């Protein structure tokens, strides 16, 4: 793959003459027997729920947060919608869906929702996933870990690009289907039916349509609606340090990886560069509102910065190096990975970025418009596992000698007005970052092991703790959002699990009205079991595209002129003003993940549960008391623990 001629000629890059390590073991993560996209043509389509089911689910959810005349009014408006305007909109949606069998009914409008949003994307649309620490000191430093993970990420890129990455498949019973026999059998099936063959063996292929935008991709600001742009010919990396931009070739002209010492040399060269921190860090402009950034970018290009911008936009991905050594401060780590404290050492538009602190802690962030957690988590896990399995360098490895002609620091022309704009945007972004409170709760009382013996869903228990914390702090049940992937369908995105249910409300009401004792613990455990069953059913329905949120969102999209009364109902508005925005990513490589609260008076809750412990990180703005809520979370899980151990 060749570097775009215009970029290469203008910069006159000198190609590194390193000897390419040619073995397949070095060049690839693995070589899948099944072509990467083998299942894609036969993936089932995302179903559109029946309108009657959607309305029933909507009322069931509203019944948990409404009562009296408000609930009766919402029931009346929902019935009116079901019998009238809703049917017309549903019919229109079905007709459009039939004409677009290559995609899902939700995908185009979901892209539009993100790309038309003119708010700044950091905090709102750039979550992060943090890696567990490297425990072996020989590989734990920033330069060693960044180099090893860079090499592994390039293996991922090359393996995917050549169709050799294992397809994403959820194995219901891995011992039976995650086998060589399965792979050989699936390879023999035509792509047009292969997904159904896999499903017959209780293995469920997942949509990989988001993978092309994972790497070599960026979001570009445009007036009214941004665009996603791919650069399939690019083969260079972007590295940021102190707000400065550096680029170097990541692959040779044949698309192969260089030797490990070359990458170590490139990173070492950047870390040794004595250039001062950028006085006007251009990266902060990607934290501006999209209209401001659109206008500013146009001025950048008019001043002759197009080549440098293209180098940033077209990079395989962005790797950032921070000087801060975080240590064991989980809150400081969270803030560093979520927004970088507003210092400008981030390019939030890039589809994917890999960050390293001064003491070698690492995380991935991604811009949310192009995709969801499934594709990112696959990259995250593959890079982690490969970098642990194939440790290419250590603290004693000598780097190749690298000069300025191989690693180039990009320069941007800025006039005085643009410099002032950068300063103003940075001040506002720092204020926003400072206003976001972060609190962490770690509960070593129990984890998945105990819940497994009690036959309870770990996710249901985590969600129940969040509901109980809301009861403790606010005395009520609030609108709750948990994201669930619909990647089992072609171009599926997500569906909402509305985890505040009649079952969780009953448990919270009971446990706050009466202390848990050994004599009454059986009653509470029975309520807990009901919560687990209801939550499991909701999660299953959501994963199968049978929630109500995406369907109502799509029907609203089709409404022209005056909206149906259901959408202008105060109860609908309130249900979609998310107080408790929650998400989890469970994997051995994940240490912490998170995002900002989505409403001024709400909470952003990233949580995880391991075998013998659980934890949450809570974000909030001044309109909510994150510290009190976090303490309430600890109390909630302690209460649930008393119920568990008494049975």
From TrEMBL:
It comes from the Eukaryota. The active site is at 368 (proton acceptor). GO terms for cellular component: mitochondrion. It comes from Notodromas monacha. The keyword Lipid metabolism applies. This is Choline/carnitine acyltransferase domain-containing protein. Keywords: Acyltransferase, Fatty acid metabolism, Lipid metabolism, Transferase, Transport. GO terms for biological process: fatty acid beta-oxidation. It catalyses: 4,8-dimethylnonanoyl-CoA + (R)-carnitine = O-4,8-dimethylnonanoyl-(R)-carnitine + CoA. One of its GO terms (molecular function) is carnitine O-palmitoyltransferase activity.
